Fold this sequence. Notes:
Layout: E1 9-16, H1 23-32, E2 46-55, E3 60-69, H2 76-81, E4 88-94, H3 98-102, H4 104-114, E5 120-126, H5 142-152, H6 168-182, H7 184-188, E6 212-215
Parallel strand pairs: 1-3, 1-4, 2-6, 4-5
Antiparallel strand pairs: 2-3
Amino acid sequence: xxxxxxxxxxxxxxxxxxxxxxxxxxxxxxxxxxxxxxxxxxxxxxxxxxxxxxxxxxxxxxxxxxxxxxxxxxxxxxxxxxxxxxxxxxxxxxxxxxxxxxxxxxxxxxxxxxxxxxxxxxxxxxxxxxxxxxxxxxxxxxxxxxxxxxxxxxxxxxxxxxxxxxxxxxxxxxxxxxxxxxxxxxxxxxxxxxxxxxxxxxxxxxxxxxxxxxxxx
Length: 217
C-alpha cells in the first residue's frame, strides 16, 4: 500500500476541455499506467486522482493532485469552482475533431479568470492513434497547434495518445517540473524542503488513483 504522505511538496493540477476528448483516459494512463478500451461514463462534476513524481536531479518527491473536470455545460459552475488554487492546468482536445480545438479559447478564458496568474498551462492534443495510417482523420494541423500554444504561452511537447501511451507521461512530468521551477522563489522562502510542504488542500470525495513516476531517471 502506497504511503500518500511520502512527498516533499504537493501541487494541484486541473484538466479541462470538451467532453469526449479523453481527459479521464489520459489521467488514468498517467496515474495508473492503465487504459480502458471501452468508452467510459462521462465525468460528473469533478474527480480526483494523484501521482507522486520523483525529480531525480533534485532528489524531490512531488505529489501531483490531479483534478479531472467535466466538459459538460451542465456541470460548468461546479468545475470552474475547482480551478482555484491550481498551480498547473492541462487543456486537452481531440485532433480528429476541430470543434474541440476551437473550444480551447473558451476553456482558456475560463481558466484565466479563475486560476492564479503563476499557473503553468500545458496543451495536450489527444488521439494521434486515430490518424495512424489514416491522415485524413486529422482535423487540426500541427501548425495550428504550435501557433495556438505560442500565442497563449502554453507548454507544448507534442501530440499524445492515451491509448498507445505516447507523450502522456513526458508532458505531464515536464509540467510538474515547470511548476516546481516557477515556484522556486516561494519554495526558497520555506526553511526546509523536508520539514515544510506547499499544501493545496484537496477534497477527498472523489475517485482516487495513483502511481509513481521518475523525472530525469
